[in-house]
Amino acid sequence: MDKLFTNPSSVTIAYADDHNSVRKSIMSYLHDLGGIEVIIDAANGKELIEQIEDSAIKPDVCMVDIRMPELNGFETISAIRHKWKGMKTLVLSTYVEEMYVLRMIRAGVNGYLSKACDPEEIKEAILSIHHKGNYFSTLFSESMAIAIQNKESKIPNFTEKELTFLKHCCSDMTYLHIAQLMKSTPKSIEGYRDSLFKKLQVNSRVSLALFAVRSGIVPIESAPIQ
User: Fold this and answer.
1) What count of other Cβ atoms lies within 10 Å of the Cβ of residue 51?
2) Residue 98, CB half-sphere, CA atoms under 13 Å: how many?
3) Are strands 88-93 and 111-114 parallel, antiparallel or unpaired?
4) Nearest CA among 109, 55, 102 for reference residue 78
5) Are 134 and 140 within 8 A, CB to CB?
6) What fold does the segment set 160-214 form as a domain?
7) Measured at the alpha carbon of residue 112, what is the angle toward residues 47 and 62, in degrees to the nearest 5?
8) Pick from 94, 3, 109, 5: nearest CA to 61
9) CATH 1.10.10.10 spans which residues of the chain?
């Protein structure tokens, strides 16, 4: 698509979702809200990647579902990061379970939203990701996200055990499995968790994982996600 036919004041996005009615409905909402221009819409990840490759103008933000044929959301995010390193991504999915969010954080996604959210929040997320680099709603404080992005955040003084636990928080392991790996007890693990909650002023494992990845304590996965 020629740049001449896009609104320079709008944020351009590419959107992939295999549910056609859902995709078209969300696109319509975004169009009515203004400020967002969908330049690519696709029924799956493979189609999305192909359309981006063929497009003369690249989207500012790619919005993807998780469960899709051809390439699922995890594989699509991985492909986007490999092909276009500066391109930003937002997950919009019905799957909001902790492990899905943790995997996407490890994959380097810039934001994560439930499809049950208000359409205005989708616009807010897209604009925030475009201008600030992140959007995780209440999962992560805006001030912390900006500080980490600008490398101004002072990492709290973690104990060795807390730092080890923090790294494991990004994995798919349960707290019980983490306790076994650390040769510790579930009660001790709860203690490390609660101490980190207090030091970082957060209240969820997803927030801990997001902090670990955004601050560089845990690297973003570089290999394709299976």
Assistant:
1) 17
2) 13
3) parallel
4) 109
5) yes
6) Arc Repressor Mutant, subunit A (1.10.10)
7) 30
8) 109
9) 160-214
- Looking at every residue in the chain, the average pLDDT score rounds to 85
Cα separation, 200 vs 78, whole angstroms? 28
Residues 3-139, CATH architecture: 3-Layer(aba) Sandwich (3.40)
Residue range(s) of every CATH 3.40.50.2300 domain in the chain? 3-139
Q: What pLDDT, in 10s, does the model give residues 133-164?
A: 888 766 555 555 555 555 555 667 899 999 99
Contact 100, 66 (CB under 8 A): yes
How far apart CA 91 and CA 94 sit, in angstroms, is: 10
What pLDDT does 216 receive? 80
| Half-sphere exposure for 222 (CA within 13 Å, toward CB) | 2
3-state secondary structure the chain: CCHHHCCCCCEEEEEECCCHHHHHHHHHHHHHHCCEEEEEEECCHHHHHHHHHHCCCCCCEEEECCCCCCCCHHHHHHHHHHHCCCCEEEEEECCCCHHHHHHHHHHCCCEEEECCCCHHHHHHHHHHHHHHCCECHHHCCHHHHHHHHCCCCCCCCCCHHHHHHHHHCCCCCCHHHHHHHCCCCHHHHHHHHHHHHHHHCCCCHHHHHHHHHHCCCCCCCCCCCC
